Amino acid sequence: MKLVIAIIKPFKLDEVRDALTKLGVEGMTVTEVKGFGRQKGQKEIYRGAEYNVVFVPKIKLEIAADDTLADRVVEAIQHAASTGQIGDGKIFVTDIVQAVRIRTGETGSDAL
Amino acid sequence: MKLVIAIIKPFKLDEVRDALTKLGVEGMTVTEVKGFGRQKGQKEIYRGAEYNVVFVPKIKLEIAADDTLADRVVEAIQHAASTGQIGDGKIFVTDIVQAVRIRTGETGSDAL
Amino acid sequence: MKLVIAIIKPFKLDEVRDALTKLGVEGMTVTEVKGFGRQKGQKEIYRGAEYNVVFVPKIKLEIAADDTLADRVVEAIQHAASTGQIGDGKIFVTDIVQAVRIRTGETGSDAL
Amino acid sequence: MVRWLMQLAASRVRLGFVFTAFAFFAIAAPATAQDVALSNGNTAWIMTSTALVLFMTLPGLALFYGGLVRAKNVLSVLMHCTAIACLASVLWLIAVYSLAFGNGGPLGEWIGGLDKFFLSGVTVDSMSGDIPETVYFMFQMTFAIITPALIVGAYVERIRFSAVCLFSGAWLIVVYAPVCHWVWGGGWLAGKGVMDFAGGLVVHVTAGISALVVATMLGARHGFPREISPPHSPGMVMTGAAMLWVGWFGFNAGSALAANGSAGMAMTVTHISAATASLTWMTIEWMRYGRPSLVGLVTGTIAGLATITPASGFVGPIGGFLLGISAGIVCFAMVQIVKYRLKIDDSLDVFAVHGVGGALGSLLVAFFADTAFGGRGLSDTVTMGSAFGVQLTAVIVIAAWSAIASFVLLKIIDAAVGLRVDGDQEVEGLDITAHGERGYDI
Amino acid sequence: MVRWLMQLAASRVRLGFVFTAFAFFAIAAPATAQDVALSNGNTAWIMTSTALVLFMTLPGLALFYGGLVRAKNVLSVLMHCTAIACLASVLWLIAVYSLAFGNGGPLGEWIGGLDKFFLSGVTVDSMSGDIPETVYFMFQMTFAIITPALIVGAYVERIRFSAVCLFSGAWLIVVYAPVCHWVWGGGWLAGKGVMDFAGGLVVHVTAGISALVVATMLGARHGFPREISPPHSPGMVMTGAAMLWVGWFGFNAGSALAANGSAGMAMTVTHISAATASLTWMTIEWMRYGRPSLVGLVTGTIAGLATITPASGFVGPIGGFLLGISAGIVCFAMVQIVKYRLKIDDSLDVFAVHGVGGALGSLLVAFFADTAFGGRGLSDTVTMGSAFGVQLTAVIVIAAWSAIASFVLLKIIDAAVGLRVDGDQEVEGLDITAHGERGYDI
Amino acid sequence: MVRWLMQLAASRVRLGFVFTAFAFFAIAAPATAQDVALSNGNTAWIMTSTALVLFMTLPGLALFYGGLVRAKNVLSVLMHCTAIACLASVLWLIAVYSLAFGNGGPLGEWIGGLDKFFLSGVTVDSMSGDIPETVYFMFQMTFAIITPALIVGAYVERIRFSAVCLFSGAWLIVVYAPVCHWVWGGGWLAGKGVMDFAGGLVVHVTAGISALVVATMLGARHGFPREISPPHSPGMVMTGAAMLWVGWFGFNAGSALAANGSAGMAMTVTHISAATASLTWMTIEWMRYGRPSLVGLVTGTIAGLATITPASGFVGPIGGFLLGISAGIVCFAMVQIVKYRLKIDDSLDVFAVHGVGGALGSLLVAFFADTAFGGRGLSDTVTMGSAFGVQLTAVIVIAAWSAIASFVLLKIIDAAVGLRVDGDQEVEGLDITAHGERGYDI
Ligand SMILES: Nc1ncnc2c1ncn2[C@@H]1O[C@H](COP(=O)(O)OP(=O)(O)O)[C@@H](O)[C@H]1O
Ligand SMILES: Nc1ncnc2c1ncn2[C@@H]1O[C@H](COP(=O)(O)OP(=O)(O)O)[C@@H](O)[C@H]1O
Ligand SMILES: Nc1ncnc2c1ncn2[C@@H]1O[C@H](COP(=O)(O)OP(=O)(O)O)[C@@H](O)[C@H]1O
Q1: Confidence (pTM)
Q2: The domain that contains C98 carries what CATH number?
Q3: Domain E41-435 has what CATH class?
Q4: Fewer CB atoms near the end CB (10 Å): N or C, chain F?
């Protein structure tokens, strides 16, 4: 089983969620994060003074998925979240060694 | 060593923390997240209009633990966080290849 | 490829970022979290009453890096984030099985 | 003699012709009234009321509306309200005061003149009744500020900022100035004895109808109605509502233009209506959904305040109580109807709360002003029926004019600069895309 | 003649009998006083004061309390304050004003009558002294709003909303109306010459004692005292406190019922006491904990304001200064005693700050009113000692009545609907469970 | 006779000598004026103005400044403003009022005396013109509160709290008291007929220059100018600015010390200047950066308000309009110059907005007061040129004194307790390190 971690632009969240729902993904966890990367932060101007906002607001998605589904999840996110502009974000995939549904105690794929 | 990631209902945090402290867990990291899953979001009503709150407030716990302790951690969380109602959350376990305590530079189990 | 997860004191963020930038790290993701550990929470006093703030504000950094770079990332963080006082935080390293840059679809090291 | 005139004016309040009288003074006084004795007490109260009514918009209404939108648009709403306040103030000085209250000559039934362009001729000594004309100018200005700001609630989260500025400015000249003149500036409705003590017609009906038009023409927000997020800060909504409530004492009791029994009664009925409407709304929610909400409670407050406004100088405590109950029930129902039957995204319910409330009060005052309902008494020359006829005419004509003029203005502005931001900007939020700022960095 | 009466009233202020006198007018005036000349200046000030005192509750007190609780309960606190304000307003109209200030006939020592039910008989022309009776009605109403709202601080984060509504309404009738009548409405304490310029007894002692009773009966919050989280928004607390401070000018200086030297001096001593108590509290914290806190500083402000309230019409600047210092020291100590000795979860320290402060000021005024302490002078017929006796009697009787009546009311309400939400709801927070809303969606 | 004196005073307003006259009354009145009839209307307005000006600082300015800093320092800013308000109030009572407005005897050109130490000799009956002296005392006190609080903007995010207290207290005595005496207390500048209706010199120039000095001596914040984070809450900034705007009606129109035409005109020009400056600033930002910001818009508001302040009793609507435009342009430019040319971290632009605005208005009033520019007229004995000479002298001398005295005070305080927190504390934020609190726990 895999944990797909995606960092995306906040306003892409709805589109990504729709894309994943279509794939049959039934759950995900969303965190508001701040990103630092090539996209060098918006310049905000206050009272005529430029502020380098080093950290850019991003959304982190975490989706646990079966190995087979994981690849399609990655692909779907990559398509839905892409604008072609710098700062679109990253997807990282790690292994999950165990998954449990708290309500029922089910484990493995059944837990998702 | 394992990283136990648990998504739980916010008001279960204190009970889970107590359960883990009893197991001898000495540290954990908590993040406020939003969950999307079977629990289809509370309906909030404003001015008589229903809003589907798609994302439900959840708490994410991350606990690094030795392989031996990890299973008991999972079990303890599953018991303490369960209400039997939809939306209780998930536990995912991943492998940690290295751990360091910043203060001392200790690594491995000693770092926890 | 590795995902380096570091929990640090908030006011160390700028120093850590500088240290990582010097190493050539080009991106990272930052989350505000709350930590529970040996550092038993600041005592805040309101109206003469002590409150045990069990959870201490911390910053979580996530940095994806090549295996070779990862060790130096860990080391750099450990140095930059250390104050020698309890509560300095932890670094955990996990494996990444795949990385994708959303904008271009590049994978692996090229995605970082 | 002057004192006698004042008393006449005061007594005519009870006859429902107060604004005709005041309008007469407002126009006639500065020319002839060097001999009217200034009342320090009344001047103190109207200056205080001016501060209170400005406070209603800045920051009251701004916070009330700002808390109702999503966090990514909160600053844009505050920006709309503040910029409109500034714009309206300058336009009021330049021309709108004169168009509303100046001497219209042969067109006087329809519009004032430009004789008071830039307050020309108005000095420290100019009087309007027994208060300085500058104070009357400022007090009325605060009404001209809040009225276009009320419309903000219809177009939040998707409008272009340039369209906000152009529309609000033009609307003040084309809608507010003439309607204000008709009702309070000695125009044709004043001549018919229309009753609008503090702006049910001039403020709430004009803003409410225009809101409906702009919401329709702009189209709904992305995701409306099912995927709109709830108010991002109900506490901010309540804070703003509380400021509106307190400020409304200046709005309604200040409209007596004196610190006297008329003002005291206006304050009383205003407060009672607000409290009653709040409890009514809360009760409806409690019964229907099992949980009374803070946003609901204070929406009831605003409904009660808007509804009593036209009637506040004419009705008694029982009238205030009954108007409050009506406001809670009717406005609650209208929110549902507009959003779910008409499917119009009048986003913060400007029409359902202000437009409907203002119209409701403007119509019911014909009855509740009667002593039979504990009111302060209709004029001897009218009956409840004939008074209702005048009120109904006023509501219809003012609504029609507001709708038509708003429609035309919006068509022109749409052609000129476009009304709506593009989809990406809407999704990302107006704060960062239109103003380069973020609401919360905590 | 009228003018002579007014002057008599004014001079009696300095004799410490002001409220007896005013109460007399309040009752007697409407019937006979068509010939009392209305003062526009005084009317302006009391209408302004009414707005200021309403502002103290909405949003002042609501924000002050809202910032002190956890984020998951902030809306419930705002809801309590707003709903109580609405409820108190309607009840005030229906019966409480009449019970407090109406003609009680043979029971007049104990309670007013129902002659002013729904303001019956009160018209635009009714006078209360030289201001309209409606204005007096409204001004007094704002006191009836804030008093039950003060008690909110005792029961936050765990009470049922229905219990809030039932208790507050019943409490107004059973506790507030009679005590107000005794002290300000011509009842037995007024007859004894009790001094309570602006509500140390009527407002702060009643609310403080009742708070202690409700906190005890409701039980402590889950985790009290060690695991309670700190105030979620000290900035909100300070904002509310600042509004309370500004509004308190209306509370105390408005209680002169005129814009004159008595009001000016009341405003001065009020402000001095607030500033002094704040600095005192800050200094204590600085010395004891090494870090003065914002929450501490403004808690001192409120303590200073509550303490000066009963004395504000009787003492001079030096009295204000000394009362402020006493307030800071005594209230600081009481907070600790209640929480750690008595172990009562009077969550936001209503008793320690308001109850104790109000009682302290009510007792010390017997001395500081004397010219020896720079006061405005006790009546010729009393000594410091005899005045103290009257004040002490008043504090004891009012505290006892508040405690007993609150106890009985709470027993009844507990049986009827239950006082406390269940444990899960408490942990999850009242905002979402009782009102279906969340405080911050940012 | 008294009435004749009052009228004289009123007419002299237009001659630009108002403060000389009032200062004369303030000093002379209490001794002789038991026969001056109290005006309830004027007293009502000045008490209201007192509440409004206190509201400007608490919470207005506190929120305005608090929103501009980073979240980790928000509480420290609120703490600074509140503690300064308390400290200034107590010092005002003890000595500063007396030093500013007391009888200085042979030193009377330079400083008042200590005859009014602790308000000695001031009773309920003491008058200052036709209002109670206590009311005059309170009104003036609110100016003494806001002036040192304005300086807070220069030293936020890095100063020690003990230094804030010591500096603010000493500054009031050494800078504020004498300057206030020179201009408003019958001192040498009053004798020269200097025009400063509401505090362009006394408040804004003193605070602005001192801000520049403290910012320079304290040094820039860590990371200035490139790595400073943007304002953490523009909505809080706007809320504070709105409260400042509303409160400024008390500041400027209250400075007429009466509810009359002079007050009405002051309110009018104040409002017009604020609105115009806001739109000017917004337009500049829109043209230069493509996006008008909320923080910019309301910064324009404050610039317009500071600039009109000295002129508000002397100019007409057109003067207000032109002053507003000048304020927007000049203050905008100065913000850039101070930060990027002078590289001084006057963090919240106190000098560029208040100092420059106040000086600008103080100089331009020499022209705009003339009837040629629609003003209320210069005195017969002066020309625009000679008036400008007096104003320029006043600006230079006051600026010099403020700078020198602040420099010396800061040197002493630095030696005594240190001005600046250490680096770690600055990075972690003053809220937690100096006050043990966190701004947001949500
Ligand atoms: N090495 C990394 N580790 C973790 N997160 C990263 C890393 N690099 C980038 N990110 C995240 O991805 C976001 C986008 O990266 P950026 O370099 O700005 O643009 P792009 O993805 O288009 O190359 C960043 O804001 C950051 O949150
Ligand atoms: N596949 C998933 N990946 C990551 N997080 C998930 C996933 N499925 C559910 N979650 C998280 O678990 C929470 C609870 O899931 P839900 O399906 O609502 O209920 P239950 O766990 O009782 O089946 C969700 O709100 C979400 O935060
Ligand atoms: N076992 C753990 N799993 C996850 N996070 C941990 C763990 N132990 C500590 N942490 C995180 O590290 C932070 C610092 O740990 P703490 O024990 O207080 O000090 P130190 O790292 O100096 O020993 C905690 O606040 C918490 O966020």
Answers
A1: 0.93
A2: 3.30.70.120
A3: mainly alpha
A4: N
